[in-house]
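Support request, please re-run this one:
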Amino acid sequence: MKFRVLYCAAFALALAACGNEGAPGGDPSPISGLTYYKDIKPLVDQKCVSCHREGGIAPFSFTDYAVVHKLRGAIKSAVENRTMPPWLAADGCNDYVGDISLSQAQIEKISAWVDDDAPAGDAADAAEPIPSDDTGSKTSGLSRVDMALTLPVKYTPKKSPDDYRCFIIDWPRKEDAFISGYHIVPDNDAIVHHVLLFAVDETAVAQAQALDDADPGPGYTCFGGPGVKFEAAGSGGQLLGGWAPGSPGGDFPAGTGIRVKAGSKLIVQMHYNTLELRDDIADQSTIELKIDDSVDKEAIAQFFTNPYWVRGGMPIRAGEKDASHAFEWDLTTLVGGRTINVYTANLHMHRLGTSARLAVTHPNGQKTCLLDIPRWDFDWQRSYALKKPVTMKPGDKLSIRCNWDNSAANQPVIDGKRAEPRKVNWGEGTADEMCLGSVLLTYGD
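Re-run finished. Output below.
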C-alpha cells in the first residue's frame, strides 16, 4: 500500500540526514546513562514490535538491536513528531487495551539515547519487558490461529479505479461456533482499500450463490456488503469484522465471540483501488480466525452511520476547508430496547478526513467518549478495545461526528499532478468519502 512506500522513503531520508552511522554500540559511557538493553528495548518491545516484526504490517523488524541502531535517526524523528507509534486515539477520551502511544517522558528518553549514538550496553542488563495488556501474539495479532481461509482464486481487478468483489468461502465447521478474533492478511496491500467479512446462514447462502453464478469470472460484484438480503435481525447473516490500512487484527474482548451457525458460508468483500498502480495487481488475501465452541457473552459487530448520508445526504463542497457532519441515534432500538455493552470502537473515513469522534450522549446531556481521533490518517485505521465496556440504556444515543478538508491544498496527487477540488459525497470509492463508526457489543445483564 502507498503508506508503506511513503513510510520507507521517510526513513531513508532520515537515515541520509544522520550522516554518521558508525558501528553499532556507540560510546560505552553515554552522557545520558541510557542504553538499549536496559532502557530502550523494553519500550521497543511494548510499543513497536507488534508491527515492526518479521511478517508484520510495518517495514523493518525491530527485534534486532543492529537494525534499531541503524535507524536511530529516523526513529527519533518519528517519535518526536508523534507519527510513530501510529496510535491516533486522543488522550482523555477513554482507556484502551494495548495502548501503544508514547508519553512525553518516553519520547525524551528515546531522543536522549539517540543523541548519545544509541549505545547497546550490556545484554545481561536487559530489563524485564514493560507489562502490556495487549494479548495478541507477535505473529498475527491473535493469541492463537485456529483456522486460516484464503480467497478461492488469485483475482485481478477488472474495474478501475475501484473494484468491489465478493467471494464465497466454505465454512468447514459442522456445528455452531464462535469467532473470537480475526486477522485479515491482504495479499497485495498496494491495491486493497478495505476488506469486510460476513457470515451468511442457510437462509441467505442460496442468494449469494445465485449472484456468484450469474457473474462471469470468480466472485461477484457487490457494494456496501455481501449483496444478500437478511430477512430479519439475527436471520440471514451478520458482519464479523473488517480490515482497513493499519488494522492489526486481534482477539475480541475476553469471553466474547460472534456466532457462526452450522451450514453457513463466509463472504469476503474486497475493495480494490488501482488508481495509483499499473502493474502487479493480482490478489489472494487470507483470513486468520480464532474460534471457540462457546463464549460467556455472544457479541454483535454493528456499523453506525446516518442512513440519510448513505443516500447522498453528506455533501462536502469543492474547496471547503473544514466540512463537518454529525448524527446521533438510540442504538438500543436495534435490539428491542435492551441494554447493551459497547466493547470496541472504530471510525472510518477516506483521504479527505481530518478528525472524527464517537461518543454516547446520555439523556441528561452528559457524554461518554468512546473514541476521539483529532488527527485522522487514512493509512492507520484500527479498532480500539475499551478497557471497561460502556453501557448504553434506552434513551442513550450513540453520536458520530466527522470533519474533512476539501481545499485545493489537500487534494491527492495523481500522475504527478495535484487534482482539482470537486464536490464530494458519501461513496465507497477511494475518491468519495464516508463517516462510519463500528462497535462490538453484547446485551447487558
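The mean pLDDT is 85. The chain has seven helices and 21 strands.
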